[in-house]
Amino acid sequence: MASRRDRSPDSRSPDSRDARSTGSRRSRPGGRRRGGGGGDRSSGAPRPAPEPGLRRRRLAQAGLALVGAVGGLGLLGLVWPEYDPALATDQEITPATLAEKPRRPITVLVIGSDADSLGAPQNGAAPRGPANADALLLVRVNPKGPLQVLQLPVELAVNLPGSRSPVALGSLYRVGGAGLTSDVVRELVGLEASRPDRYVVLPRGALRQLVDGLSGLEVNPPGTLRYRDRSLNYRIDLQGGLQTLSGPQVEQLVRYRDRWLGEQSRRRNHEIVITGIRERLSRPDVLQQLPALLSGLQGKVETNLSGRETLSLLAAGLDNDRPILWASLPLDPQKPGHGRLRQLRAAAPQPLWPVPAASGSAAARP
Hints:
The chain is α+β, with helices and mostly antiparallel strands. It has helices at about 15-35, 40-45, 50-80, 95-100, 170-190, 205-215, 245-255, 265-280, 285-290, 290-295, 305-320; strands at about 105-115, 135-140, 150, 155-160, 165-170, 200, 215-220, 225-230, 235-240, 245, 300-305, 325-330. It folds into two domains: about 10-30 and about 55-80; about 95-155 and about 190-330 and about 350-360, Aminopeptidase.
């Protein structure tokens, strides 16, 4: 099981890792020249020519740095295609022309935070305190198959090393951020060591901004939804039926929890909202505004996706007429004395999140 410290999943894109590695190799020889030559420059004495052995070492280090940079870019190209200038023409933007798709399935962990913004000291939700994960989703974007979404129950009981009692999966974000959450999800679902490939943390304020930037969402709430929390001064009041909801209204929909169905009702509402977002993003008029929309969300969303990677995933996820393949983890009923915590069903089929046979993947590993 993962440690408690906030070990964020590699927040640098493959581009930045290669650049950082290359830069570190180049800086060491340069640093020695500056430190050793300071006295010569101040006295005006001519700088002696480097010894042949030192020159060879420097050339070898520069060569290794170049090989590392080229190799890193080569690995990047295996997953994320290089930018194609032909895509920057004045042709109509469609999901197919938005960007080149990734060359293999990419798994993204989406963390819906119950705080209004990143770094907020209080979540503004019940129970009060630092931010928790109000929604957890694994999204598999497959360029040759359907878009898959696995809904992870935030009320699932998990055991952490050194903890005397189980805690809710959704509380891990408060304890160790996206890093700990990603590690536990990887072990829980049985993902490969390198997965999830990327992560996104979406606070409630960013969700409202996203929906308003899309000019609202056309959704069909399951019925009249009403709730009032006097301690938080928050009210939910939605009518059922097909309608266009604003950002604050969509927030009400994803926050609503039925008193009898509990978190299961929330996951149903999350499915409605995500389906509506995908349908809205597929419209040509919305795709034209996508660069401005994504730019406005910078600083409001935490992610290790680059702009190029984001467009590539959107191209693969939107250029597909097939409906989203939804999945969830099977849970045992609530047990007395465990509060809202629930256990994973012991006889749950393995793997918990299989790759569809039609996805073009050679193996059925998650």
